[in-house]
């Protein structure tokens, strides 16, 4: 991944990061539950959300599959299994 280096006023320079942070804040932190009273609880929620985001969320651009399932399916489809030679 290449670093993002833009010029002053670039509206899309940090769009991906800002979009992900917005999702995180909506889904994990400002979820309507009780106020966060302990930094450890916030840390645990962050870890849970990141794990869910990277493994289980449904992603529309890959056929509404979780990323981990899509990756596994892709690897199985593109991995060549050697066949034993018959003598």
UniProtKB/TrEMBL annotation:
Pfam families: rve_3. Transmembrane segments: none annotated. Residues 5-67 form the Integrase catalytic domain. InterPro entries: Integrase_cat-core, RNaseH-like_sf, Transposase_IS3/IS150/IS904. GO terms for biological process: DNA integration. It comes from the Bacteria. This is Transposase.
């Amino acid at each position: 991944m290449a670093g993002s280096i833009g010029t002053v006023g670039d509206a899309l320079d940090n769009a991906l990061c800002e979009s992900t942070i917005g999702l995180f804040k909506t889904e994990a932190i400002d979820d309507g539950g009780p106020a966060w009273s302990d930094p450890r609880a916030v840390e645990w929620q962050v870890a849970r959300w990141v794990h869910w985001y990277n493994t289980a969320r449904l992603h529309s651009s890959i056929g509404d599959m979780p990323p981990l399932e899509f990756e596994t399916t892709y690897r199985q489809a593109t991995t060549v299994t050697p066949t034993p030679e018959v003598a």
